[in-house]
Amino acid sequence: MSNTPADTAATLDGGTAFDHGHAQSGLAKLAMGAVGIVYGDIGTSPIYAFRETFAGHHPLAPDPLHIYGVLSLIFWSMMLVVTVKYVSVITRADNKGEGGSLALLALINRSTANKRRWTKGIVLLGVFATALFYGDSMITPAVSVLSAVEGLTTVNAGMQPFVLPIAVGILVALFAIQSRGTAKVGALFGPIMAVYFITLAVLGVVYIVDWPGIILQTLNPYNAFLFFADNPWAGFLALGSVVLAVTGAEALYADMGHFGRRPIGVAWIVFVMPALMLNYMGQGAMLLSQPLAEAMETVKNPFFFLAPEAFRLPLVILATFATVIASQAVISGAFSVTQQAVQLGFIPRVRIAHTSAAAAGQIYIPVVNWALLIAVLVLVLTFQSSSNLTAAYGIAVTGAMFIDNILIAVVLFSLWRWNRIAATLLLAIFFAVDLAYFSANLTKIPAGGWVPLVIGLIVFTLLTTWAKGRQLMLARMHESAMPVKVFIDSAASSATRVGGTAVFMTSTPDGVPHALLHNLKHNRVLHDRIILLTVKVMDVPVISEDQRFHHEDLGQGFHRLVLRYGFMEDPDVPACLKQFNQCGPAFRMVDTSFFLSRQTLLASERPGMALWREKLFAWMLRNAESAMEFFRLPTNRVVELGSQVEI
């Protein structure tokens, strides 16, 4: 597992610090963009988080003790988990400007290359965090859109039968437009979410004005203590729903490459967190202002009851827009994570379509899009209510947050070399908070918490099977590979030479490619210029042009060429070759032939992987995107030669 392409790639020294154009955009503009994309998920939490804490799987009476206690838990959770952990600490651990579990994994592997004891466990944790993210990408659209559409029942109780069909229609439409690109729609995300957050704040302030003492009660951590002291078990179970208020916090780190650390932090401190807390306090103040019997009914959907009846339908529509934007963010995130995973060697090659000529990050991956849609529809039709789905939501989020703690622990001790006492104290707080939330959500496993665990296990199995199988396949091919020098000395002098250039794609930058051996065996000719070409993905997001090429002249017309790409870049082999002029005349595609090897896997009882995983890997290999399309090779200049490999 440790020998992923990112692991085996040589570390690049003196790399450029990539800012992704952040310096060219104003702070206010970037912060507004962050409001629209980064905070869509956490921004929709008020729709269901407070409701689930009081009327969910473990109901609480909406009395002052519980309301003040829950509000205090929500506030301090935001402070510790979002403000301190993610905004202040984790976002500092950027990989040349990029964030997310895989980017952090690549950063750790590069920085601890001489400490191999870390590698395997860290890789497995990073991969499992990625697997949980896919579960989150399935659950977020389902629970957020469904919770918003359920607001229709507060407008007219007779709308209940239409909630499910409307939610399904919105979700199908959302996934259907992905292939058209989201650049134009994305320009509206910031303003819409800004209006949404302002609305959250205004709705909360209306009730806080009549109950101003709730502000100090919320900020006072003693109320959380009193809540637990009154009934420790009820307080513990409530944590499983309180954590819904910080779902989406991990998006801060994953989306850092789009906006930069500072705009994300400014948007959170100045705008997003105040709006969220004002709304939560408003929900609490509204319940406190009502008799207990009335509050017991209101708490079943307190977010929408904040609005006067005349404004309730517009609020439902605005909330639905916000949940669609939140869903769009995780769908786009799933595309980006898939692209990173392909480049880092955890997922087979897949077709990646670029939907914008101006924005490199605007991509569309059909297989991921339709797989997510199917999964989301299955979840919606199976659970049928957002309340049922929230049980599944918490496990995925808290599991990913807990893994982030472990990864950041490695960063603090091995990369940043913080003072051990200070780092240990900080990590102890993070682990205590996340462990409490994760443990509380484990109680929801029978009610749906098993869903993200099953999804995570399936995705984890696929990712690790591909990475391990690829490692074994390359090792088997290396065993039978002929040394290049021996081949050149024996074949170059005896074979007939023909004009033009032959490019032989090979996975490893040593040994003779199987396609070259087969071509000589069957055609009995060699081209005047032969390029043994390896595309290597490094563990940094972007490679500077002066580090793109590594060339070695092997003599007698043979050249070894390595093209380096970052894990956020798309390989374009013909475009790169046209820029390279250190091995003879300029490359002309009309005179260049590309030879590819297509391996057929033969599962065997040889040590390495279980037989069922070998068969799974063989299936994944058969269904991978062809190297011709992935590397953008000209279709009329490609020759594929097959070979069999036993693993």
Write the layout of secondary structure elements.
Elements lengths: L4 H4 L18 H11 L2 H4 L5 H7 L8 H26 L11 H11 L4 H34 L2 H4 L4 H17 L6 H26 L4 H7 L2 H9 L1 H11 L7 H5 L1 H4 L1 H28 L3 H7 L3 H4 L3 H35 L9 E2 L8 E2 L1 H18 L2 H30 L4 H23 L7 H30 L4 H8 L4 E10 L8 H10 L1 E13 L11 E7 L2 E8 L7 H7 L12 E11 L8 H12 L4 H4 L7 E9 L1
Parallel strand pairs: 3-4, 3-7, 4-6, 7-8
Antiparallel strand pairs: 1-2, 5-6
The CATH class of the largest domain turns out to be Mainly Alpha
Gyration radius (Cα, Å) is 27 Å
| Residue runs with pLDDT of under 50 for 5 or more positions | 1-24
The CATH H-level superfamily of the largest domain is Amino acid/polyamine transporter I
Q: And the CATH topology of the largest domain?
A: Amino acid/polyamine transporter I
What spatial order of strands do you see in the largest sheet? Answer: 5-6-4-3-7-8
- How helix-rich are the residues, as a percent range? 55-70%
Q: Shape, please?
A: elongated
Fold and architecture overview:
The protein is elongated, with a radius of gyration of 27 Å. It has helices at residues 5-8, 27-37, 40-43, 49-55, 64-89, 101-111, 116-149, 152-155, 160-176, 183-208, 213-219, 222-230, 232-242, 250-254, 256-259, 261-288, 292-298, 302-305, 309-343, 366-383, 386-415, 420-442, 450-479, 484-491, 514-523, 573-579, 611-622, 627-630; strands spanning 353-354, 363-364, 496-505, 525-537, 549-555, 558-565, 592-602, 638-646. By secondary structure, it is an alpha/beta fold. The strands form two sheets. A six-stranded mixed β-sheet has the order 5-6-4-3-7-8. Strands 1-2 form a two-stranded antiparallel ribbon. A hairpin with an 8-residue loop joins strand 1 and strand 2 (363-364). The protein folds into two domains: 27-448, Amino acid/polyamine transporter I (Up-down Bundle), CATH 1.20.1740.10; 480-646, no CATH class. It contains 28 helices and eight strands. The chain is 61% helix and 10% strand.
